[in-house]
Amino acid sequence: MSETIRAVRGMNDLLPADAPLWAFFEQNIREWLKSYGYREMRTPILEHTGLFKRAIGEVTDIVEKEMYTFVDALNGESMTLRPEGTASCVRAAIENNLLFDGGKRLWYAGPMFRHERPQKGRYRQFHQVGVEALGYAGPDLDIEHLLMTARLWKKLGLAEFIKLEINTLGGAEARASHRQKLIAYFAAHIDQLDADSQRRLHTNPLRILDSKNPAMQAMVEAAPRLIDELDAAARAHFEAVKRGLEDAGIDYQVNPRLVRGLDYYNYTVFEWVTDKLGAQGTVCAGGRYDGLVAQLGGKPAPACGFAMGVERLLVMMAEANLLPAPDVPDVYLVNVGDAAARYALTAAESLRDAGLSVVLHAGGGSFKTQMKKADASLARYAVLIGDDEVAANQVTVKPLREGDQQREQQRVALTEAIEFLKG
Ligand code: HAM
User: Fold this and answer.
1) Atom 21, ligand 1: which residue's CA is nearest?
2) What pTM was estimated for this model as a whole?
3) Is the separation of the CB atoms in 410 and 362 below 8 Å?
């Protein structure tokens, strides 16, 4: 036998046992997004590398070390598997002139790719559901996003496990002045910075605040705070967001160290976090990115959005036993003999015409073996066809599940069987 080829590390198959949970989640997501008036869009998985460099930022973990980037052998261009959806969504909105008549509420879902060290809740191919509101400046949209995510956790039964952290990054001026103060502060403590942080000192000092290195925590805690640099407009925006949360009765915590790993953010940023997933506790994150549309070449337009990690939410749902009922067919169609097999093919189609789901037994075998398969399929009924049924132009209907057992096995014409099965 030849050697087996395995899946790429950190990239998972979705097997039939888990598919119903994904389908249940996707169904809920569609209903939820519709109830807020968001419209779906889909963008390619592959983009020009420059898009992500420009949108996410050259000195970020994602761009520096996590992107699947390769040279297209046919034309020598640098291509990247998308590590997130915001950059692509904004690119598509600009390219297709989606904002020509005002703001747009958009969503997308699909696989994203980051070359991270795989562990529970962290994969190299993972799935996001993302929401972007393009063209809206006011805090009402920030609040809408926080209310809608809170509603989703309730809908999925996860509300008690997930907490909200928010922060504001202010506008460009506040960040520039904060940046200068941070560089001066960290330069004065350079001997305490680890190698990563030393490298970031002049390129992206804000990210040093995000460091998880325990040896740096006390020094980082005492660093100059952005919140002290905010101008009146940024303060008013943040206050309005907090007020909106309070009006809606949503608990939150202001985390002044929440800075996010992508450079496009300004003003509000937030993360929904859980302690149920070990180190990978962020299940949903986002914020405002008012500069990105212009930065990618569009007519300036404010924007905000968020994305959630589907695998992380589903792990939580599975662990909390919030599982949907398994998918079961209505009928398992048992057929023994050549004539029965022929009859079974058309009978199965007639059952499906009537709206019933049917697994047609394939591969032959005795009644006994086929009935074992019927039981294992969890179907509610077995419909049996053998030589006797073919001769009489009938089928035998046999209830398989408990509540149905009092309805007795019967041999009837197919049309009668259909009435019975639908009843
Ligand atoms: P992000 O924080 O990089 O933001 O990712 C959003 C979510 O995707 C994370 O909170 C996490 O749940 C999930 N996630 C990220 N990396 C992985 C991974 N390797 N394995 C499993 N799940 C993962 C963004 O991507 C922004 N585009 C969000 C946004 C939209 N901001 C504004 N609009």
Assistant:
1) 122
2) 0.92
3) no
